[in-house]
Amino acid sequence: MDLPAVTQAPLPRRRSLFTLALALLLAAACGTSAAPSGASGDPMGSPNISPASDTRSPLIPVAGYRSTLTALTSVGIARLTEVGGKLPITKLVLIAPESAAILAALGLSSTAITSRLTLVADRTALKAALAADEKAAGFVRLTALEPALRTLTWEGDAIVGVYRVASLADWPLRAELPVDASIPAEWLSGPLAYDPATAWTLAAGGDILLDRGVSADAKRTKRGADWLFDGGFADITGTTCCSQFGVPRVAARYVRGGGVNGLMRSLFQDADLSIANLESPTPKKWRQHNSGTTFTGNPALLRVLKEAGIDFLSLANNHIGDGGVSRIPETIAAVTAAGMGSGGAGANLAEAQRPWLTKHPRPGQSSGECADRNS
Question: 130 with 275, same domain?
Fold first, then answer.
């Protein structure tokens, strides 16, 4: 039986449209298809302040998007008053009208950290200052968070993400900030207000290659492929130019860490929805590649991805046809058989563009109200 012509969705634009469709469908009430990995919640837009008995604004430590900073503490911030020594950040960047209240909340005075304090006029200037210095940090109100800013933990607590505080009331750092007239009232209360207790988390992984060193090491070490998700962490220490192929780009320098066994697995499993890009097709007739840039992977290894907590695999990439264009349906079937959703490729353009739907309860709903959520 001849297979139908197989079409991959056009890459750059199609991938962005597919991601948008996925996000919009998640925002709807219970849909169809397989259930995601994590706990219940609801997707929201930009984080916003939720009403609580404490009317002070939560203060969130932030850095530039490309910063290597991950955390701040009160002890570290207090060291900004010291002369010499290794400091946690190069400077503290604050929006001028909010600076007095923020410094008071931090227990600092502007005169004590004059040389390490930068005051800016508004959020735009704050983003520019943090982007220019990857070791600089600032504090903003919750409604000022946006993709250009990396949120940092404070005293070990996170405001967003898989390991966020249970509710906004648990956030430890607040201040009486002046009213920001630019913030819509509906962002401060009601269904658009952000609260960690009702947020959804999305864990997004990058390219997954079930070929080359991955499958070879799994066989050589006799540990199986599950060990790939058993590792700890890596501390990014800086950047360097150019890849191993001589292509000019910025790549991270890092030091391998440890002590957090299964960290990658827990990130995927604890998120409400986990997605990644399957860069190597998994046709029935696959073979190991030890060199070159053609990839195929053993379909049996897809089980490991599902068990690690991944719910959805994008197939919209430049390697999906490496096992033969006519065999792309075999990869789709293998992903489905492993219990994951897929999108971005199909037997025709309509299939390649078809969005993936999943069920998820809204806040206040039990998982039983989305009956297929745990099926």
Answer: no
